[in-house]
Amino acid sequence: MMITLVLLTLFLFLLLIVGKYYRTLRFWRRQNVDTFSAISMNIATKKKHMGLVVSDLYHTMYKKSKPLMVAPSILLTTVMLQDLNAIRDVLITNFENFSDRGGFVNHQDPLTYTVVAMTYELWKPTRQKFTPTFTPAKLKMMFPILMEVGEQFVKVIANQLDTDINDLNIDDLCSRFTTDVIGNIAFGIECNSLANPLTEFRLYGEKATDFNMHPIFHIIGGKYPKLSKLLNFKTFNKDVTEFFTRIVQQTIEHREANNIRRNDFMDILIELKKTEDSSDGLSLTLEMIVAQVFSFFVAGFGTSSATLSFALYELARNQAIQQKVRRDVEEVLAKNSANEITYDNLQDMVYLQQTIRETLRKYPVIPNIRRMCRRQCTLRDSAGKVICEIPKDTFIAISVYGIHHNPDYYPQPELFRPERFDDAEISKRPAVAYLPFGVGPRACMGIRFAKMQVAFCLALLLTHYRFLLSESTPKELTFDPGNPVFLTVQGGINLRFEKL
After folding, report:
1. What is the pLDDT of residues 76-90, one digit of tens each?
2. Beta pairing partners, 495
3. What is the pTM for the complete model shown?
């Protein structure tokens, strides 16, 4: 009798699941929306980076003039957008309908309590508190720290060349550089990973992107927060959480006790904590400070180092472009009596800035954008015609890599051509055809810092070294499918450096 009851219960449960799936499928078919299989895509990501798999789907949709397609599911229905007007709708025009990224905030996993993952209700006041930390005035205050680490970077490369090692792993070097920059600016700690790549900070920086659970569980957590809290889903390993919490707490206590100021990111947060206005009901707790410092570290460390590696690789492949960028840097520096790089004259290095933008066009380090629909709404195309209704809690996927490699927006997209970002060229393209940092209210908050860090490092290296391909340089880059969130190179990139 008991067995019969259990089997009947299981049968009814399966019947409910199947029924829910077919109701979801009928909803989209009534709107004439084509479907794709999320399972097939997940299988494909075992051998190919998720960014490229999603890009392939984007190009299929574009060729067939499909503004969107959907992967129906009982748990995580996902709509893939191709139409740029619909994308602008989601990211800008109807932002409040799509203001969540669908991330999971677990208060027992404090590193998840970031402005990136927060739902709209928490995100809005938090963003307002933290936005002033990235003004040009604040970045200028941080610039001397960047210069100090840059000098160490040049010395480390020079020391390696003096030992007749001129074939350098630039992934490793750039990662150590950005670790030291972010460690100094975010935590006020001299990490010294340039001198010693096995420092504790560097090792925990690497572990910070080694997630404790697959990103799919993070997405499930965003859609079903009560269930996820009950199951206590944790994104990060316990030792990583404990390390970063301890470092932040010790730094704050030391500075407050000794009245120390370094004009860095941590200083700004400590000052913000002292002067915060709690009328919005949001208190700047230690937990929140740790999470924001951590997210700033992870974003600035991983994405910036990858961008630097990609830029150096392309400059080594394209010697004429490299020489043109170097001339751009030297001409701007010649106008400076001290002949040194400053925050202000970085902005005057026009071709250098175009080169960075082209690097991010060809290699968007975050190749996909995700949003979640907060309430049912309508998407329209550029003619104002209704495309379809989007139900609440539907995930939206946008292929940044696919858009950036669309030949209708970027002719011969595999060519590296910084001139694509002349003002005249930019004016020919829709604004949302370039999305390395996202657009709209929920675009990357640290965009100015990221650009400053990458531009400074490239300008500095160009004045000291020539970058060349070596026998061990990969002919074509293969992206690591084991890291579905970021675009990273499998096996790394080696280049030859020559002193000028």
Report:
1. 889 999 999 999 999
2. 168
3. 0.90
